[in-house]
Amino acid sequence: MARFNYRLQGVLNLRMQQEEQVKMEFTSASKELNDQIDILNGYIATRDEFIREGYELRSAAIMDVQQIMDNNYYQRQMDVIIKDQEVKVDSYRAKFEVARMKLARAVQERKMQERLKEKAFEQFMEEEKEAEAKEVDERTSFTYIQRAREE
To answer: What is the pLDDT of residues 71-124, one digit of tens each?
Structure first.
């Protein structure tokens, strides 16, 4: 039996290599997005702490106006920092989406090449069966002719 040789194996190998590269890019984009979200959550927690501290300062028996003003300032600053970080997170989320779409396309292209290889293998097997059947028919015919000559 002949050996199956896929003509486009190089293309399939290239697609698999590209998919691995895109997977690494996707993983990197995912990690960066998660890091930025963690930073944002840290800022939000800090702002919430300032808000809680502000309530305590306002409900204290003796109010320190300077501390209350400072606390209000810090809260407003954290709001600005949070808004900047949200913009940054949106930017990283867009990069993540681009990487996700590239990964989906790379997987699709690899699967398409694999399907083509499977179809080529099926066609190869069909041709091998036909060749084997032809060989069996030829042997049978040859044997029949030999027996007929001997008689």
So the answer is: 999 999 999 999 999 999 999 999 999 999 999 999 999 999 999 999 999 999
In the block, tokens 């808000």 appear at 51
Asked if 26 and 100 touch (Cβ cutoff 8 Å), the reply is yes
Calculate the alpha carbon distances from 64 to 21, 50, 57, 61, 142 in Å: 58, 15, 7, 10, 113
How many other C-beta atoms are found inside a 10 Å radius of the C-beta of residue 13? 11
Distance, CA of 24 to CA of 63 (rounded, Å): 55
Distance in angstroms (rounded) separating the CA atoms of residues 67 and 53:
10
> Under 8 Å CB-to-CB from 58, ≥6 apart: which residues?
68
Nearest to 10 by CA among 18, 2, 22: 18
Q: Which of 104, 106, 124, 126 is nearest to 116 (CA)?
A: 124
Please report, as a single letter, which amino acid is at residue 129. Answer: K
- CA 121 vs CA 4, 39, 126, 128: distances in Å: 7, 52, 9, 10
8 A C-beta contact, residue 33 and residue 89? yes
